[in-house]
Amino acid sequence: MADRNRRKIGRATQGIRIIAPIEIPGFEYNLTEHCNLACHGCDHASPLLPEKFARLGDFVRDLEALAGVLHAGDLRIVGGEPLLHPDLVAFLREGRRIGVADRIVLYTNGVLLHEVPDALWSSIDELYVSAYPKVRRRLSDEDCARRCAEHGVKLTVDRIEVFTRSLLNQPIGEPRLVQAVFDNCRVAAECPTVHDGRFYRCAIAPFISPRLAARGIAYDNRPQDGVPLHGNANLRAAIADCLTTRQPLGACTWCLGSSAPYEKHHQLNREGCRAWLAEDTQPAVDEVRDKLLGPPGLARRAARRLRRLM
After folding, report:
1. Which of 6, 117, 130, 306 lies 20 to 30 Å from 263, alpha-carbon distance?
2. Residue 238 CB coordination number (10 Å)
């Protein structure tokens, strides 16, 4: 009887094509857009954005839709600063239940680790702490390592001394440079994200529009750069194309990606945040152009000298 049933099932499924999910190393999900630090050069523009918390229902809906077509090694819970979210543990548990990724990695600046509930430690597989100069963390590295060891959690402490000056106040006006920035960008190659019901291949892309809005510039790259997760009959194909296309994102016009020059990490006050939005970022663009496309010709050198005199 069992053999006869298996033969029936085999005949019934002949011709049905089973499509495997897309496999990627990991993707991000922002639980907050704001942060308790104000780092100059933050590529999520957190010091410039208003307080915003992800909603658990949206998180579940987005990840369940994604789980139908994609599987990841890591679900990276990020911000802003995710420890600011009052329902953080619920997000971690739902992420585990949905199973879109094998591991859950929590990224934090560590400032609030001394306040987290015990349930957090048993809800993650890895804790990634970004340790910034002159930023006090009340839970010491030793105590943090002990808590992680007690729960079988891998601990990574990344001591960050510099930030990249990726985000721009003036757009890149040269399509050849936009393409070169995209082609050389580790973020676009390695850091996809899910944000507000869309899948992006680049974790910076969702924040270009709100950052420019803070500067009074209307530029919405999100429909171009993000794949809608809901009501999308071709979701798997759209995500596959998003991850493999060689066409630059709309965000790339306003970002230098991982080719951006470095600067020493420092915190901003309110005046500093306003100054960041007013900075002339063209010198950074010129520096990246020289690095990726070679030294400028006579005409471009003359144009640069003219800008400096204006």
Report:
1. 306
2. 16
- Is residue 84 within 8 Å of 116, Cβ to Cβ? no
Give the position of tokens 């596959």. 240
Instruction: Look at residue 306 and tell me if it is in a domain.
Output: no
pLDDT at residue 45, rounded to an integer: 97
User: For the chain, how many structural domains are there in total?
Assistant: 1
β strands within 46-153, DSSP E = 70-78, 101-108, 126-131
Check residue 305 and give its pLDDT. Answer: 58
Q: What pTM was estimated for this model as a whole?
A: 0.90
Residue 292 has pLDDT above 90, yes or no: yes
In a domain, 2, yes or no: no
Q: Measured between alpha carbons, how far is residue 59 from residues 51, 66, 247 in Å?
A: 17, 11, 28
Query: Does residue 289 lie within any of the structural domains?
Result: no
* Residue 98 near residue 67, CB atoms below 8 Å: yes
| Rounded-to-integer distance, Cα 88 and Cα 31, Å | 8
Residues in the chain: 310
Q: Which residues, in sequence order, are CB contacts of 68 under 8 Å at separation 6+?
A: 21, 235
- Cα(167)–Cα(264) distance, rounded to whole angstroms? 15
Task: Print the domain residue range for 57.
Answer: 18-279
Preceding peptide of 26 cis, ω within 30°? no
- Which residues 6+ apart lie within 8 Å of 128 measured at CB? 105, 106, 107, 108, 156, 158
For 159, list phi and psi in degrees, rounded to 5: -85, 110
* Domain CATH number, residue 183: 3.20.20
Average pLDDT of the residues in 151-167: 97
- What six digits make up the tokens of 181? 């920035």
Q: What is the distance between the alpha carbons of residues 251 and 188, in angstroms, rounded to a whole number?
A: 10
Q: Are 78 and 31 in contact (CB under 8 A)?
A: yes
- Residue 301 domain flag: no
